[in-house]
């Protein structure tokens, strides 16, 4: 499992882009994780699935509401990562009003989730392999903090906890 002081694993994530620009076309765009995180401080939170109850009612809204506070604390970007495809993440982002606040990053095949060692097997519940719920602060590709939730919990990966950690870096 990924731990503090580790570097983010090599690989890619996808994001559904609503407006063409900065070299990005409309629709799904693939981003190299190392290139995207280079020279930036990023608040990353991951969760089991788009449009699921806790994720939609608490997890994403907390980061959307505190996006400006994260920026004031020196965080350049906020990423939400889920094992969903870019189309689903794009639709969920529109529903949650994340534009300009939280980047909705798709890990469609769970490659990133497996590389960080935080998969959650929900096959018995009909959801397949998903991501555990966690948050982390990453600076120039290096993990500075990591908060992994116990199964079924939402206590340490919330926006308030990660924001307090960002302020103390």
TrEMBL record:
Residue ranges occupied by any Thioredoxin domain in the UniProt entry: 2-168
Catalytic activity: a hydroperoxide + 2 glutathione = an alcohol + glutathione disulfide + H2O
Pfam family, one: Redoxin
Known EC number: 1.11.1.27
Keywords: Antioxidant, Oxidoreductase, Peroxidase, Redox-active center
Keyword Oxidoreductase carried by entry: yes
Enzyme category, top tier: oxidoreductase
Family: Belongs to the peroxiredoxin family. Prx5 subfamily.
Name this polypeptide is given: Glutathione-dependent peroxiredoxin
Source species taxonomy: Bacteria, Pseudomonadati, Pseudomonadota, Betaproteobacteria, Burkholderiales
């Amino acid at each position: 499992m990924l731990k503090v002081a580790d570097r983010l694993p090599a690989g890619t994530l996808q994001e559904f882009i609503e407006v063409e620009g900065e070299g990005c076309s409309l629709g799904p765009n693939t981003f190299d994780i190392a290139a995207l995180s280079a020279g930036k401080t990023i608040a990353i939170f991951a969760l089991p699935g788009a449009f699921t109850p806790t994720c939609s009612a608490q997890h994403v809204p907390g980061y959307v509401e505190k996006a400006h506070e994260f920026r004031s604390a020196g965080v350049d970007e906020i990423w939400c990562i889920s094992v969903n495809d870019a189309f689903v993440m794009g639709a969920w982002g529109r529903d949650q009003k994340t534009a300009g606040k939280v980047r909705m990053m798709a890990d469609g095949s769970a490659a990133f989730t497996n590389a960080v060692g935080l998969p959650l097997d929900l096959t018995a519940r009909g959801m397949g392999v998903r991501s555990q719920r966690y948050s982390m602060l990453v600076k120039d590709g290096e993990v500075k903090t990591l908060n992994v939730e116990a199964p079924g919990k939402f206590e340490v990966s919330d926006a308030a906890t990660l924001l307090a950690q960002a302020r103390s870096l």
